[in-house]
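Why predict the complex rather than its parts? Because the way molecules touch one another can change local conformation, and only a joint prediction can capture that. The input here totals 1065 residues.
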Amino acid sequence: MNRMENPLAGVKSEKFRQVGKPLIRTDSPTKVYGTAVYAGDLTMPGMLYAAVLHSERASALLRRVDTTRAKELPGVHCVLTAEDLPASQGVMTDMPGQTGGMTKNTKQPILAKDRVRFCGEPIALVAAESVAIAEQAIGLIDVDYQDIDGVYDPFDALAPGAPIVYGDDNVVASYKIRKGDIEKGFAEADVIVENTFTTQYQEQAFLEPEAALAWVDELEVLNIRSSTQVVEHYRAVADAIGLPHNRVRLRAEFVGGGFGGKEVMTIEVWLALLALASRRPVRLVQPRERSFLSHGPRHPFNITHRTGVTRDGKITALQISFTSDAGAYAKLSPYILLYATVGATGPYRVDNLHVDSVSAATNNLPACAFRGFGTMQANLACEGQMEEIAKTLGMDSMEVRRRNFIRTGDANATGQIIRSAVWSDQCATQALAALGKRPENSQTTRIGHGVACYQQSYGRILWMKDSSEAWVGVEMDGTVVVRSAVADIGGGQSSALAQITAEILGVPMKEVVVYFGDGAVTPLAGTSTASRALYMSGNATQMAATRVRENLLGCAGRHFSVEAEELDMNDSQVFVVGDPKRSMTINDCVKLCAAEGVHRHNLAIFKAPTSEGIDPETGQGEVFPDFTYGAHAAQVAVDIETGEVRVLQSIGAHDVGQAINLRAVEGQVEGSALMGQGFALCEELILEQGQLQTRSLSEYLIPTSEDVPKIKAIILESGSGLGPFGSKGIGEPVYAPVAASIANAVTDAIGVHIFELPITPEKIVKALRRKETVG
Amino acid sequence: MLPSFELLEPHSLDEALKMLATSEATPLAGGTNLLPDLRAHGRAGRRFISLAALDQLRGVEHKGNRVIMGGSTTLNDILRDPLMPKAAPSLVSMAKVFAGTMIRNAATIAGNICYGSPSADAIPPLLSVDAEVTLTSAAGERTLPLDSFLLGYKKTAHQPDELLKTVAWTIPAADSANLFYKLGRRRGDAITVVGVAVTVVIESGSCSKARIALGSVAPTVFRAKEAENILIGGPLTAATIDQAALTAAQASRPIDDIRASAEYRRHAVHMLVRRLLTQAWQTSGAKQHD
Ligand SMILES: Cc1cc2nc3c(=O)[nH]c(=O)nc-3n(C[C@H](O)[C@H](O)[C@H](O)COP(=O)(O)OP(=O)(O)OC[C@H]3O[C@@H](n4cnc5c(N)ncnc54)[C@H](O)[C@@H]3O)c2cc1C
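Output of the joint prediction:
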């Protein structure tokens, strides 16, 4: 595999013994055997069951919420409404990191008081002796709504006189980028291409809906075991209900899918309140229909690109506008809009750039984090625009890309210099080549090939000043323990730490146990979001394991009378390199350490680079630690009579820096291929006047096993990332180009571009008809 | 949440029919329609009669050129029957794209028919082979064409005390083609946007019989009889086929819903009927040549 000189981390030229190999993940057996415990499996003696009353109206005053009948129902232990909540009313819905501050006004009421702003807003909580009783009680709560004018479109929300949902003007956030000289850029252009792209709401549709169990323990600590991506929500829970931080313990169980949907707090604070009020353990597993209302889906975006290009395909100016629908509460919308803004130019270098972006509040479902976090919508427009530019110029679209790709050392949209490898070209070329020859068109089907590249950050926004801690220790028998509060959300987050540690300490991976996800007893590791878990916790673990190794080799060196550098560790042995007779087992080595009083463990902290923000007028500044680059290619067959699209091949090629577990990387590529296919073709939460029309998984259509195309992952390793061993983040990056590649393949097949996702059969038929009549 | 319900479990057909005659109860076969409905908007305390133990309701009998299929035959049973590809090709094509494997293991033919949904996938193929249904009750048996069993949106001729015992039809003639296509928004577990089954029988170079059955484009699955008539009595030229397909599209009364617009559905009927008739003519014509 290819490597390049890494200017930052220093390329590890040695061959790895375990890193990069497709080893069996530490969490795989328990999941395969069905013994893994998820939050919804947990029970406790005396446990009660919760249910939540969600608003049926999108915009209404709450004239009265009468819980009398619900409270009288036998078996009901408590019913809570906004009236019963502590004065601090409101839970923080943004993610400030360990030290950063909040964006303006992102608190959301825990339960609606006086007014509901979206259909699905929580109004009341019940804890009862069975789910049936809790549900019955929910049905007995009388809510007197008085409808008031709402607004259901972000452009309407920004118009003068619109009903106000948020702040004074419904503007949840706005950004701009002013870079270079746009006038001059357009003057230099031979042609100007302008298009508007729109994307829909996408639901995370994780297998496991929101689930948690909460109770107050014998030390008066409020415990929550939850399906979450963020253990450190314990602080937000504590702040919301007025407890000290050290009295709330949040544990993240194995998570059956997060994708950003379990990034902002979901049901934890509700259970905390019910457990405190009832003094009993309380569990909730949201039914699917209410799960749809309990986390934020992907933001719908409207994106306009006006691009100036020379005849030979060089972009001279680019003007972009973004409008996203935030829904009724801010949640993470400001950050997601920032990601879109930074990612506006995709993996391309644009010296003359204007970006104007705004996120508007409406009475729709509040949108929130979803794999890609705004970058993928921005990217989709860039990649569709590449095809349109190529068509206008009569050039091959890969050629247009090549003339504009950002390269190592170039500045991106916000002026941040890209220091790691940029292998967009290699990735796209390999992905396209892997599609092979096109099958023949038939009378009614057209084959299309499409490709898309991307730029996606990994690691959190620099002014959040992110850090992660990890603890590594060796037991007296030579087995190894890793402690990290990382949430294991199914991507192999904890297993990667085992593999890194096994590499460094020279023990088989099965000798390593990772204790993870406990906000009270494992060192805090930050969020499993932003494709940062491996980058941050992997580095912290690498640091801790390396220091333990140094301690062990120090003792062994003294024993063998050699320098530590002459020693190596493998197969649970410590030995003098080139002199295998001089060796000892790791447990003997650990005993030596113990006898000498040398630490057999280490607690390390990894701190990400930081910055103080971007210039509000120009949008210039460093925003992210680094970016991942790659490409996805798709082959589709389109039925030109019915408009049906079948994805035949889906190929992801990504520079992952360094794979830690090859199989886990491939798994990310495979999952993203289907998730992106859903976004491109069939997934869409449909709202009418704020009312969700697609209320279940029979109306909200994710691809099924029958829809799986041939999927292939091509893994390139530049070794240039900021993660352990030169790795880059990949969880979101692999998803970023998928939908665009499918959209471009459809364009290639039918000769017209569909600018509005999802690309339904109906839209294809209409587009083809328009093409026929227009000629 | 699934509301609680009462479940009666008869061990014989007679016992089941007696229960149906004397108590207000609903037959429960695979439960793949009833249980999701109950969970979505049902009330507690309903009474169901499980058909699970009534073996005589399940299975396919081939008697000469007649096929008699028990009501509790599952969609996967259809795929496992080695004679079915000859006995009703469209039914096999349909079963392959019906739901997904898990549902096919539970879903029954009687459940599909009696639920009476306009999107019931088994009905267009069965209409295309002129199937009849036999209903049985404590009072006796009656047999009627499937076509007249379907009355309207989720409305059938089924009486509360009856069970659908069998569906039966005559194997299509040798010089014929019998095809099905399901258009959905995804390939697995999709509610049909347009379902089409056609039969074309050829005698000495001309079409002697035609069936066009359409799903999801009217309050109930129906036969586009006017379109069928256009095809009878001559060879099927591209022009006749297109005219029949257009007539079928005009006979459709689809609605707009979250899956597709009425306009698109009509267009798809036109395209798919034309395509299936063309294929049917070509394959049955080819058979004649041999
Ligand atoms: C995920 C999923 C996917 C699906 N996909 C499809 C699909 O692709 N195509 C499709 O057509 N349908 C589909 N369905 C719907 C359903 O599976 C079918 O309609 C199925 O055939 C119903 O059969 P059942 O045995 O489960 O019926 P049940 O739910 O048990 O019963 C349905 C109705 O029929 C009545 N009934 C059952 N048996 C008899 C009898 N012998 N006599 C009288 N009345 C009777 C019941 O009282 C009830 O009213 C799907 C359902 C699900 C949950």
